[in-house]
Amino acid sequence: MIKQGTCFFTSESVSKGHPDKVCDQISDAILDEILRKDKTARVACETYITRGLVIVGGEITTRTWVDVEQIARDVIKDIGYDNAAFGFNGNTCAVVNVIGKQSPDISQGVDVGGAGDQGLMVGYAVNETKEFMPLSLVLSHEILKKLESVRKSKKLDYLGPDAKSQVTVEYKDGRPVRIDTVVLSTQHTEKILDKSGNQITEKSKKEIADAAIWPIIKKWADKNTKIYINPTGKFVIGGPQSDTGLTGRKIIVDTYGGRCPHGGGAFSGKDPTKVDRSAAYMARYIAKNIVAAKLAHECTVQIAYAIGRDEPVGFYVDTDGTGVLPDEKLAQIARKIFPLTPRGIIEHFKLRSPIYLKTAAFGHFGRPDFPWEKTDKVAALQKAAN
N or C: which end of the chain has fewer CB within 10 A? Predict the structure, then answer.
C-alpha cells in the first residue's frame, strides 16, 4: 500500500476510557465470564453507554447465569470512572439488561460446525516493525498505554480516563523514516487550565509529552516532529458524559490502522463461532507467518464464509508485489497448512477460553500474548515454498 516516493500515513488509537472502548470491554468481560462457566455458549453481546446509563443487549444462549450489571460496573470502575470527577460513575450509573436468546434458525447451522454468519474477514502483516504491524498504529497504541500507566500511577494526577492518539509517519520508497506529527487529546481536571479557563497550561503540555509521548517516539522523532496536545484547548468534559459509546465502533483501531481493507465486522462481544472474530484472527495469523517466513514484505489475507457452512467460500493472498512466489501459489500453500473451518480455528487457538477482555483495548493484533500472533508456521511455509 505504501508506494515509492515520499508519503505520509496516519493511524489513531483510543484509550480504555473512550466511550466506544468502554462498551467493547463490557461486552468482552461478559463474554469471558460466560465462557468460564459454559464453553459452548453462544454470545453476541452489545453495549451502549451515555450519560449515567449503560444498556447491555444482544443474543446469548447459555446454560449458565452471570451478573451482567455487576460485570459492567466492575469494568467501568476499573477503567477509572469510579467517582463524579470525570462525569461518569460505575457505582451509581443505571445498568439496563435487555439480552435475548439466539435465533434457532442460526444455531441449526452452527451446531454442526458451520460459520455463525456469512461475511469476509481480512488479516494483514508488514515487516516494518517487530510486531509485523504498521508503525503508525503501534506507536499510537503505545502512547496511550504509557498515558494510562502515568494516570493510574498518579504521576500526573489530573489526567482522566478518556483519550485519543494519532501518529503520522513519513515514508520514503515504502519504508518509514521519521514521525512527522503526533496528536494527543486527553481528558483532565480543571487543575491544569490557565487563567483564561479555555486552555491547558504549557507546563502541563510539556509534562504530558515528557511522560507519555517522547519515551515512545524518540527513536523516530527529529527536530521537525510536531506534537499537538489537546489542540482544541481543553478536554475537561469527556467519556460517556460528552459522547455516546457503542460496541464495535472502533474497528480500524482494533485492526491495522487503515493500512488494509476491513471486512466490516466488529470483534468484541462475539463468541468464536462468529467468524467475524475467529476468522479475522486466523487471517492475521496466516499473513503474519507469511511475512515472518520472508515470503513477502507485506501480506493481506481475505477469508469469506457462508452462514452454516464450514469450508470458506473464498480465500486469497495479496502481497502487493512483494512476494517471492506468485500470490496464487502462496494461497495454495496456506490453505494446506492452516485450518480454515470455524471448528478448526477455534480448536487451534483454543478460543473457547476467557481471553477476550484483554483484546478490547489497544488493538487485537501485534501483541505477543495472543495465540494468533505466534509465528510457529514459518518453517512449514518455508518448506512448502521451497
Answer: C
The three cell numbers locating residue 193? 487550565
Residue with cell 518455508: 382
Note the pTM of the prediction, 2 decimals. Answer: 0.95
Task: State which amino acid sits at residue 137.
Answer: L
Q: Which of 18, 9, 13 minimizes the C-alpha distance to 183?
A: 13
Helix axes 378-385, 275-292, angle to 10 degrees: 60
5 — alpha (psi -120 to 50), left (phi > 0) or beta? left
> Within 10 Å of residue 189's Cβ, how many Cβ atoms?
13
How many CB atoms lie under 10 A from the CB of residue 105? Answer: 9
DSSP 373: G
Contact 272, 280 (CB under 8 A): no
Confidence bin at 114 (pLDDT 50/70/90) = low
CA distance 190 to 167: 26
Spell out where 31-129 has E strands: 42-50, 53-61, 82-83, 88-89, 94-100, 119-126
Dump pLDDT digits (tens) for 63-109.
999 999 999 999 999 999 998 889 999 999 999 999 987 655 555 55
Q: What is residue 84's predicted lDDT score, i.e. its pLDDT? A: 87
Distance separating alpha carbons of residues 75 and 86, to the nearest angstrom? 16
Question: What is the percent of the chain where pLDDT is above 70?
Answer: 96
